[in-house]
Design a protein that fits this description.
Blueprint (H helix, E strand, L loop, with lengths): L22 E10 L4 E5 L12 E6 L2 E11 L4 E6 L12 E4 L5
Antiparallel strand pairs: 1-2, 1-6, 2-5, 3-4, 3-6, 4-5
C-alpha cells in the first residue's frame, strides 16, 4: 500500500484535531527514547500549524506513521510519532502531510 497524502489520517485522531490548513513539511529531527518517538518539522505557527494536529508521515510511496503535534514555535513544530511502521521507520527527510478538514 502506497503513501497517499489524501488518505484518512484520522486513525489516531481521537486524541488530536483535524488540520484547518493543508501543508507538507519535512522531518528535520527525530529523537527516540525507550517508549517515545519525537519528530520535529520545518513548519510552525507562521505556516498555520497548531498543537494537537494529526499529520501523516510518509516517504515516497510508503506510510511511516502519524505525527500528533505537541509543541509549536514560529518556524518549527514537534510532535509525537504514533502508528510507526517498523523499527526506526520515521527518519530525517521524510514528509509530514496535513490535509485541511479531512473527515
Amino acid at each position: 500500500m502506497g503513501f497517499d497524502p489524501n488518505a484518512d489520517t484520522r486513525a489516531g485522531a481521537v486524541r488530536g484535531i483535524i488540520p484547518d490548513v493543508s501543508l507538507t513539511a519535512t522531518i528535520v529531527k527525530v529523537e527516540r527514547s525507550n517508549n517515545r518517538v519525537l519528530a520535529e518539522i520545518d513548519a510552525g505557527q507562521r505556516d498555520g500549524v497548531k498543537k494537537d494536529w494529526i499529520m501523516t508521515i510518509g516517504d515516497g510511496g510508503s506510510f511511516k506513521g502519524n505525527l500528533r503535534i505537541i509543541e509549536v514555535d514560529i518556524n518549527r513544530a514537534t510532535g509525537e510519532v504514533t502508528l510507526e511502521q517498523g523499527r526506526n521507520a520515521v527518519q530525517v527527510g521524510h514528509k509530514a502531510v496535513a490535509v485541511a478538514g479531512k473527515e
